[in-house]
Amino acid sequence: MTVQFTLSASAYRCDPCTRRQGTVVSELVRMIKAPALLNGELVGDEHWGCPICLEPKFPVKKPRKPRSK
Ligand SMILES: [Zn+2]
């Protein structure tokens, strides 16, 4: 029995912006959509998003913070 893994790798780009700008928009910036301040600390879901259309593209995977003792 063979198990086949399909690995798909492709360059990311923001299609709407690439079309609009005429140049490939492949940048991503880390952003928080609708952040809140909790006791002065920023809380919210972090995303990787397009810096031009500000569309969140991928959720930022956060490693669980080890509890500081
Ligand atoms: Zn975009």
List the keywords.
69 residues, three-stranded antiparallel beta sheet, mainly beta, binds zinc ion, two-stranded antiparallel ribbon
Walk me through what this model shows.
By secondary structure, this protein is mainly beta. The protein has a domain at 15-58. Helix content is 10%, strand content 26%. It has one helix and five strands. The chain has one helix spanning 15-21; strands spanning 29-32, 36-38, 41-43, 46-49, 56-59. The strands form two sheets. A three-stranded antiparallel beta sheet has the order 1-4-5, with no helix packed on it. A hairpin with a 2-residue loop joins strand 2 and strand 3. The longest helix is centred in the N-terminal third of the chain and has 7 residues, at 15-21. The termini are far apart. Bound molecules: zinc ion. Zinc ion binds at residues 14, 16-17, 25, 50, 52-53, 55.
